[in-house]
Design brief:
The complex is a heterodimer of chains A (556) and B (76). Helix content of chain A is 69%, strand content 8%. With 556 residues, chain A is α+β, with helices and mostly antiparallel strands. Classes of the chains: A alpha+beta (556), B mainly alpha (76).
Chain lengths: 556, 76
Amino acid sequence: MGKLTKIQVGWIQAFIAVLIFYGLINVTLGYLAQVLEINKIIFTISNFIGCSFCLLFYAKDGELSRETMRSTDTWIYGLIMILGYLVLLTLFSLVSPVEVSLIQRLSVLFSFLIGWFFFKRTPNKGQIFGIGLITFGVFWVVSNVHADKVGTVIGFMLLSATFKSLRVFSAEFHRPHKKAVEDNSIKSRCRVVGYIMFVVSVLFFLLALITAYINSLNPSETPLVNVTFADFFSYQSVLLGLLLGALFYAPLRTMEFSIAESIKSENFLAVGALSFFATWFWQTVTSPLTGLETKEFGQTDIIAGLIISVGALIMAISKMRSSKNKAKSINLKDYIVIDPQNITDVDDSKHLINVSMQYFNQNVEKVSKALGLPIEIISDIKFDNDNMLALKGSVFKKVSKKYTKNIAIKDSLTGVLNKDGFLLELREYFARGHSFDLLFIDLNKFKPVNDKFGHDAGDFVIAGIGKRLRRLMKNKGVVGRLGGDEFAVLVKNSDNVSDVVEQIKVEINKEFVYKSDKIQIGASIGIANHTEADTTEALIKLADENMYLDKGNKGR
Amino acid sequence: MNKEQERRENYPMSADEMYRKKALDDYIQRERREDEKDRLLNVKQQKRVWFKVISACGLMIIILLTFATIGYINNG
C-alpha cells in the first residue's frame, strides 16, 4: 500500500475524532453530569487547562510561542469559543441535550455557505444532496419543539451554527498553526494548540468568576451560566476535568486543528454530524457499565439523527471521491501557503516568479524547469490578484537557490554564464589559486549578420555559438557571455591551450542555417594565463588586448 | 586562524541546538555576528513566553487543585 496523502490522513483523523473521541466524550460527559453531578463549567475550565498544560509540557519551548500568543487569530478563536459556548448553554435551557446536538448540525450548511461564498469552494452534487438531508433533519427536530419556543430556538440555532462554523474556520486559518503545519513538526503543532487552549482557559476562567460573582448578587434567579463560588470547590469536576483534559482533549484538540487545515472546515463539520450516531452507539455499548439509558433518544430524534447521519456520510464519501480525482491539484498545496502571516512572503514569491517569467520571455515551461516548480504553481502565484499566495518557506529557499544558479547568473539567450556570473567564477578561481587560462572571444563578421538577416538571425547565431561552446567546454572549463558578440572562456589546467583555441575557432567557423540562409562567421581570440596578472580585471584586460592582436593579425 | 577557518569553526548553531542551551545570555554576549545574535535573542524570547505560559498554566492548576482539596476535606 502506498504512503497516505495528507488529505487521506486528514479524513482518517476526522472519522477517528468523531466516531471514537466525540462519541466517548459525549457518553463520559453524560455519565459525569447525570451520575456524579459534576459542574460543567468548572469541569470545562479544568479540562482546558489540563489540555493546555499537557500539550505545552510535551512540546517544550520552541518556535511560534511569541507569534501564537500575540496573534489576533488566537484571541479571536478564544472569543468565538466563549460566545459559542454561551449560545449553546442557552439552547440547553430551551431544548433537550439530544435535540441540541442535532440542531447544532445546521453548522454544516453554514460552513458550506461560508466556504462557497468566501473561499470559492464549490460543493459537488453529492455534497449539496447531503446538505439538503442534514438541513431537513435539523428542521424536523425544530418543528417538534413546543410552539412557544420555536422562534427563540431558531434564533439561537442560527447563532450557534454561525459560531460553530466560525470557530472551525478560525482553526483552519489560524496563521501560526498553518506555519507549524508547514514546518511539518508535531511538537510545533502541539505547542501552538497548547497556547490557544491556554488563552481559551483564561477566558473561560474569567467568565466563570464574573458569572459566579453576578450569581452571588442575585441568588434567587435561575442563571444562564450555572456556576457559583461554591462550585469551584467541586473536587470531582476539577480532578476529572484535568484528567480528561490531558488524556482526551489534548490529542483531540491537536487533531481538530490538523483536520480543519487538511480536509477543510466544512468537510470536518460534515463528518462531525456523525457524532449523534457515535454517541448513540457508545451509549448503547457502555450502558451496562455506566447505567445510562438510551430512553432520552425519542423516536423523532432517532429518525432525524439517522437522516442527518446519512446526509453526513453522503457528503463525506462524495468529497473523498472528488478529492481522489483532484489529487494532482491538492498536491500543489505542498508548495503554497495561503494568506501567510507576513505579507512580504507574498511579495517575494511574486517578484521571484515575475522576474523569472521576464527572463524567459514569458515562457512558463522554461521557468518551471529553471525553478523546479510545477507550472500550476507559477500560474497561481503570477495571477494571484488578491495577494494571498506565497511559496512555503522551505520551498522558497530551494527555489531561491535554483533562481541564483539558473537565472540570476545566466545569460537567457545562450544559457552560458552572464557577465556577473562569469566574473564571480573568475574571482573564485583566482581566490582558490587554481591554474587556468582566460580566453577572450570576439566574433568576426557578426554585425553584417544583423544588418543583412535581421536581429532574430543574430540572436539565432549567438544562441548557437553559446550551445557549441558549452558542448565543447563541458568538463574542461567555464563559458560566459560578456555582452553583445563577446564571449569568454575559462580553461582549467590547460597544458595546451592553443589546441583549445583552435577547436573553438573550428566550432565557430561552422556554418549556421537560418531559414534556409547559410551564415558563416569567425572569431578572434585573446589568451591570458592566470600568472600574467594579479587581478581579474587586469587579466581580462590582457586577454582583451591579445584578442585585438589576433584580430590585427587577420587584417581586420 | 584565517577568516574562513574561523567561520567554519564557529558555525551558526541550529535552532534545536539553541533551544537546548541553558545559559543563552552568555552566548548572546559573546556572539559578534549580528544575524546570529538576532537568532539567539529570538530563541530567548520564545523560551521566555513558553516559561511564562506554562507557569501560569501550572499556577491555575495548583489553584484549582487547592480548591478541590478544600472541597474534598469539607464535603468529602
